[in-house]
Amino acid sequence: MALSLLLASCGQPLTTATQAPASTEGSTNGGQTCPSKAEIRNSIFDEIYKNAETANNYTAVQVSLQAHSSKIVSSLSHKWKLVDDTSLKGFSVESENEILSLVSKSLSGISSASSYVVLDHRAAIIDEARYVAGVTGQPAKVRFKSLQQSPMSPDEALIAIASLEAGNRTTQSAIEAQEHIDAAVSAIESKLIASGVCSPGLPGPTEGSAGGDSPSGGDVPQYTDLLSYWKASLNPAVYGAWKAFSVAYQNCDAISRPPLTASSPYTEGIVEQGRNPDNGGVLRVISSLEKVNATHPYASGWLRQNDSCFHLPSSPLIYDFGGKPKATSSVDSNLDYFSNSGSGSKALGTDCTGYVFSALASAGLRLTTSGRLRAISVNAYHSSYFAKPEALPFDCLNRIEVSASHSILAGDIVAINGHVFIIDQVGEDPFGLRKKKTSESCTLSSIDVSDFDFYLAQSSPSKGAVGINRFRGSDYLNSSPSMAQIVKLYAVEACKSLFDGITRRPKFSSGAITRHKGTPECIDRPIELARESCVAACPL
To answer: Are residue 131 and residue 237 in the same domain, yes or no?
Structure first.
């Protein structure tokens, strides 16, 4: 296959073989800009998704990845409007063969790594199920052999590809796959430049970047709709959390309802219907629509805002372990709370990572600088990635600092291997440390979560499996010892800083509190939420 790789720059007419002068490698052409490394990488993964989605089983996905290097390179040529003409001396045969070989190694590496990524994903889901059920003991990753018993599905293959596109380096095979991908991308970029078919472009924001669009404080302009006001006045992660919350309940006033507390009544009409045989997660279904609609803290009293709204009373969202907003691998896919998806039950709803990811994505907040922000990644991420952000890595998240003057803030993300939530609002003394008189009181045993002053947004099985909810932090943590432990560890460090004035960036193996960087490379175009129009015009 000949690949002369003559690139037409965006918005310019395609140069044809009869229009272009012959060139040899090493010549220059300043009229066209070469694609960036990010654009080359994104294009490779676009083609990988297309091939994977046509397979009807996991083995077919692996075979497709290993056998279609030429097809994918050819598709890239078409996508970039590259001329395939042996009479035009853009690339030498040696360069073409080298690129083909490197792409082939990349696909083979992705195929090999995907098996381990899927097994790692299964282990994380089992650990989340154990957390929800209150089970302690040996982590699922130790029981590795049991995870290999059931065949891998095409959906799991797409999960693996999404994870690898996001830069997954959690296993040695994943690291090797990333190295092969990086080598192929670098070779394509350098060969394009060396061939003279295009000129290197200036470095700039990541494709899709919306840098500068995030709230930056200061005076808030006058707005007439709620979403625009939130976007301008709230931390971006909180804006996304409130937006996803309102869309999920198709209700303008859902977010204004009081957060749950220890004394909040239980939602009725939801029952357990066994466990998922693959991961042990409890499957919940609605046994009485009437009871759910009467007792659910956010679905009760529902009124249709406009004709675009989903009729929530016919299928209210509940906590669905393994449930996710529906998404496809298309870069234009939205996140749809109202189509059943994931490994949960037939009920609509999402688990903790499904909510947190959709909250961040709907605000255009990337978790990793690698690859595009895609809706399908909602299926690839789990709480352990948030609990150890360096693992994947989630390089758009920083572990927070604590000092004498600051600790947690609204928008911070709290995670352990089993659960994740977003800090929704904080009081002036979020850890309740002002009552401390000496540094000797900065111990785990002296930190009382009842003194905490913040609210959180999450999806959890709390209060009869209500699902997406806002909860008073002290009350929720009193019912969740594992989550309370990680927050108390940060409170201890903040307490020490209160007395010695040292700024600390705590790091614990049991979990993390992180904050989004908000830098241009970590901002992308927001992922649309299905039926977002229902609440788009909610008045202030």
So the answer is: no
